[in-house]
Structures are given as C-alpha cells and as structure tokens.
Amino acid sequence: MQSESYYIDIKRDQADNLKTPCYILDIDRFEENLANIKNPFEQYWNQRLILGFSFKTNHMKELIQCAKKNGMYAETVSDDEYNLALELGYSSEKIIYNGPQKSEKQLIEALKNGSIVNLDNLDEISIIEKMKEELDTDSLKVGMRVNFNLEAMCPGETTAGMEASRFGFCVENGDFESALNRLRRIGIKMTGLHLHYSSRTRSQEIFHALAETACYLIDRYQLHKNLQYIDIGGGLFGGKRCSGKPSMQEYADVISSVFKDMDYFQTISLIIEPGASLIATSIDYLSRVINVRDVRGTQIVTVDGSNLHINPFMSAREPDYELMTGEKKLMGTQIVCGATCMENDRILRLKDASELRKGDYIHCFCAGAYTMGFNNCFINLPPYIYVKKNGDYSLKREKNVKLQMFV
Fold it and tell me: CA dist 158 to 98, 255, 260, 292, 367, Å?
C-alpha cells in the first residue's frame, strides 16, 4: 500500500541486515523537502527568508546538524531545547526562542545574546521590566505572539475550535496593547510579530488570515518603524502532494500576496518554522514479525515494534505501509499488533493481503514527525536509528539499558 514515491526504498536483503524496530532517516529526502519549502518563498522574500528548524518535531542530532548546515535557524520552545541548540553549535543569534515556559534566567540570557525572542505572556513582560537595567534596549530582537479569534475568521479550522487558544497576547481583551505599551515605556522596541496557530486543515485560508491580522496590527499600532520580521510559524502541509492540500507554492503565494504591496515589505524578513512538512516523509519505520497466531479465524500478527513509535498520540489512523513478505497466499483478516502488553497496541488491520509469517517485515512510511520525541522506555527501549545516505545504512542509535533506563 505505497504512498506514491514518498517512502524509502528498502530491499529485503537490506532489511535483514538492520536491527529492528528502527527508524530510517533519508538525509537526501530531508534536503529535498527543505528546498521545496525554501524555493517558492525566496521568489518573494529573497535573502529575507528565515527558516527555523522545529526542534520539538524531531530532535535527532543528525537532522539538526543537517538543518544547521543548510542555513536553518534553531526554533526552540524550552530552556532544554535552547541549550541543546547551543550544545550542537548554534550561535545564539541563530536561535528562535518561543513558547510559554521560558525561565527568567534563560529569557534574559537569550535577549542579551541576540536571539530572536517571541514573548508569550504578561509574566515575561514583568521579567523584562524587572531586569531592564541589564538589557541593551537598542539591540534586542523582541517579538510578541499574537492571540486572536482565528476561529471566527476560519470556522471549524483551528485546533482549539470554539475554546480560546492558550498561547500569546490576546488582541480582543487588550493584553496585546497593554504588553506593547509596557515595553515602550521601558524603551524596548517590538521588532517582530509571531502568528503561529495550530489548525486542523492547514489551509491557505488560515495563512491568509494570519498575514492579514499581522498587517492590521502593524497599521493600528504603527509597528512598521521598528519591525524586522513576521514569524508566520509552522503548520504547513508539505513533504508530499495530496489531493485537496495546498502546495508550498500556494502557501508562498497567499502569504506573500498580503504583504507585497505594503510599504515595509522590502525591509522585513519572513520567518517560517517548518516541522512535519520537512521531517515526516524523511523518516520511515521498519519492524519485524516475531509471531503469528490464529484467534477464532483472525490472524494476530505481532511485530517487535509498537504503534507508539509511529503514532505517539494514538490517534485513529493507520500508516501508509508495505508488507515485505515473499508469501503469495492471501489472508482474509490479519491484525498487525505491537509487542507491548497493551490490547490497543494495534498498527494495521489487513483484509485480503499477503499472509505474514515470522521474519517478515512491516515497512511504515512518513514516520518522522512527533515520533522520536515521544520515545521513552515503556516496556522496551526506544527503536534503533539508521541514516541512509547513497544507499548505505549507518547505525546512529543503539539500545543501552544502563544509559536509557537507569540514569
């Protein structure tokens, strides 16, 4: 059940030489996805385009190093991620610091060291007010995350729905204006707007509404004098073409069309923070059948992996996959289950598919986003990780009981 060409080509003899369960990262696919995001937006923004690699989507060292090599900034949402970026060689000026949990120490250090800091709440304003004497107000890169009623503009499309979004400064209740005025009173210029919103649809209409709201706020509060960037966030659909989903070119067109006639367009940068659109199709997952049994006419197939490895939120979906078996016989019903002791650890429900036998493989596609970050030591240690480059597989993560279970 192949998903067009969006999978890593693994031959049976190659699979026999891999330790399972494992993730397989295709570095070439990652760089191809990056180019597919970058090229359409550079048509409008040229060198004023900044791409921030979303650490939360996948923190694999090789991915971060590849992103850095290709000029991406680090997009971080915790002190831990911020310090990981530093540890992996990012200069503080190439780190974007977002999220609602910034510690006082890290917030001030990030501001002092020239990071792009998008403030999230009034407590962070209070920290800056308290520590203002330590800050060089002329050099700060300070943005504010905007909270507005996107659901009203795009009904049924936001993740929060009719409930309030939990991030950023609310425009409607005056918090945005209050925060802006408090910064101005202590001589700090707001240099950016952060518009990231989670949506169910990832539609063009969502990003058109975000861009329009940015322009409205810039005009209403005369922000253009000090504005350096618009951070449109992530949540774009990408990595593969699917019917009814926007292409990256369409995203670039709709976002840029809102800004391109503004007087400040040539002086500001656009920040995009891609995650799943970069990573999902860059990583596949391979698990091996370890036993098969018949239960009242249903074949129960157990693999050495788990649905938790590819579907950490345990949502009601099944992955795209291929069955790596030489068996030609078709089976009526087969349920592919993970190796854990949870009844709901079920990966696939197969009907009239090739019979799976012990030693066969299940190859799941597009397993890179929000998977490794949720790996833990529940029953089994996290999967092995391989990097595929020029047809060769290099093992990057082993299993280490002492390191991962007891330290």
Answer: 20, 18, 26, 42, 24
Q: Judge whether residue 406 has pLDDT over 80.
A: no
Supply 321's token pair. Answer: 């996959």
Is the pTM higher than 0.85? The answer reads yes
* DSSP letter for each residue of 287-323: EEEEEEEEETTEEEEEESS-HHHH-TT--S----EEE
Helix (H) or strand (E) holding 23: strand 22-26
Q: Where are the alpha helices (DSSP H) in 55-163?
A: 61-69, 79-87, 104-112, 122-130, 150-153
For residues 176 and 285, give the distance between their C-alpha atoms in angstroms, rounded to a whole number. 44
Q: Amino acid identity of 118?
A: N
DSSP-based three-state secondary structure for 81 = helix
Alpha carbons 123 and 245: distance in angstroms, whole number? 38
CA distance 368 to 66: 15
Nearest to 252 by CA among 195, 204, 198, 193: 204
Distance of alpha carbon 321 from the chain centroid:
22
- pLDDT tens column, 268-311: 999 999 999 999 999 999 999 999 999 999 999 999 999 999 99
Q: Which long-range contacts (CB under 8 A, 24 or more apart) does 124-129 make?
A: 125/179, 125/182, 125/183, 128/183, 128/186, 128/188, 129/182, 129/186
In the chain, what is the straight-line distance between the N-terminal and C-terminal CA atoms, in Å?
Answer: 41
Residues comprising the chain, all counted: 407
Cα distances from 64 to residues 57, 75, 226, 393, in angstroms, run 11, 10, 31, 19
* pLDDT for the residue 2: 41
Pick from 141, 165, 268, 160: nearest CA to 214:
268
Q: Is 75 helix (H, G, I), strand (E, B) or coil?
A: strand
User: How far are the Cα atoms of 108, 121, 138, 170, 336 from residue 135, in angstroms, in the given order?
Assistant: 8, 19, 9, 26, 57
Alpha-carbon dihedral sign for residues 206, 212, 216, 217: positive
